[in-house]
Amino acid sequence: MGDRPPLAQQGQTEFGTITEYVKILCQEIRSTPALAPLPLETVFLGGGTPSLLTGQQLEQILQTLDRQFGLAANAEISIEIDPDTVDRDRLQSYAAAGINRVSLGAQAFQVELLRACGRTHTPADIEAAVDLLHQVNLSNFSLDLISGLPYLTPVRWQESLEAAIALAPTHLSIYDLTLEPTTSFGHWYQSGVQPLPTDEMTADMYRAAQQTLTEAGYEHYEISNYAKPGYQCRHNRVYWENRSYYGFGMAAASYTHHQRFTRPRQRSIYYQWVQDYQAVGGAIDCPVTVYPEQLLDTLMLGMRLSEGLSLSKLESEAGERSLQQILACLEPFQRRGWVEFTHQTSTSSQRLRLTDPEGFLFSNVILSQLFKELAADE
Questions:
Q1: How far are the Cα atoms of 4, 19, 178, 179 from residue 56, in angstroms, in the given order?
Q2: What is the pTM of this model?
Q3: What proportion of the chain, given as a percentage, has pLDDT over 70?
Q4: Which residues of 117-136 are buried (b: 16+ CB within 10 A; e: fewer)?
Q5: Domain count, the chain
Q6: How far is CA 268 from CA 142, 175, 221, 273, in A?
Q7: What's the pLDDT score for residue 8?
Q8: What are the angstrom distances between the C-alpha of 348 and each of 266, 316, 322, 335?
Q9: Which of 188, 221, 240 is the last residue of a domain?
Q10: To the nearest 5 percent, what fractions of the chain are helix, strand and coil?
Q11: Same domain, 230 and 309
């Protein structure tokens, strides 16, 4: 429902319970005008811990979305779940409410690694959660793994990959740990303690994941994501293809009318914002970033996908001069084997893409150079 709905922090607070948050969230949804008469094709409940919702609360949200925008008959409706926050009855109520896809935050399959990153679940919890998903016919599920955890070694990483494959998810997401200065890991590094894998080791783990998962039948369709044929995440493709989307809830981001805007991050301020938003009939009054030129976003997002970008689309969006500038900038990376062009019979149908895995590994280097070249030309 947005980037970071604060369900994990909800409880008995001065601002109310999860029930109150859901009530305010539904008010926001009802106050948001539909941009088109088309039903929603995907819904993703993520951020915080949405699996703390009861089935009734989840149903309330989905029914509100359906009444306001409509839900397509074949809509992909996903929820993020922590392995130790659900039981069979709750999952069964989610399925009855309309959930048909689950993203399970496994992260690792070693107790010591899970503890090091502050997770409360165990590998046994992951296996038990997957078993419950099958029991309630929610077999379309994704597992999240993190490749840069403290004290992670190549051997442990391979163990996690093989344990994940053994559970037969339809989808796998492989993320690298983001190091923030304010975290415990950041403090350790500042004090000279270095529990995290080196950059070289992390790169080798990325290569190992690519080889292991593709050999197991998963398509590496996006930099961080793998799927069995037919099970790519439809919701996330909306982001990567730079299409419009709604966001609802505290700190959630939307992209509509070529504008990105975010809701307040503090609960009390968000509650007041929803009341004001409702009073003025859905007029936006929160931080807005306007993107009249989408070229940089198109490059940054589209090159995350294994199929890359259409050269004809780039030319129509950027113009022939900018396209030639982009191609010239990418030539050194093509020589290094990081960038390639699909071989089509006509130039207009060619696609530009990063190679797998090396191009994906060095995507930040490639995109930084592209952005530098395009910015210098403005």
A1: 21, 10, 35, 37
A2: 0.90
A3: 87
A4: bebebbbebbbbbbebbeeb
A5: 2
A6: 33, 32, 40, 9
A7: 36
A8: 48, 11, 15, 22
A9: 240
A10: 45, 15, 35
A11: no
* 293 found inside a domain: no
For residue range 325-352, list pLDDT tens digits in order. Answer: 999 999 999 999 999 998 654 445 789 9
* 298 Cβ contact list (under 8 Å, min separation 6): 242, 309, 313, 314, 317
Helices (H) and strands (E) counted in the chain, each on its own, are: 15, 13
In a domain, 256, yes or no: no
Tokens of 82: 């922590």
The whole-angstrom separation of Cα 286 and Cα 282 is 12
Q: Which two tokens stand for residue 337?
A: 């084997």
Q: Maximum distance among all alpha carbons in the chain? A: 65
On the 0-12 / 13-18 / 19+ scale of CB atoms within 10 A, 16 is middle
Which range marks the domain in which residue 344 is found?
305-376
Residue 269 is which amino acid? I
Per-residue pLDDT tens digits for 49-74: 899 999 999 999 999 999 999 999 99
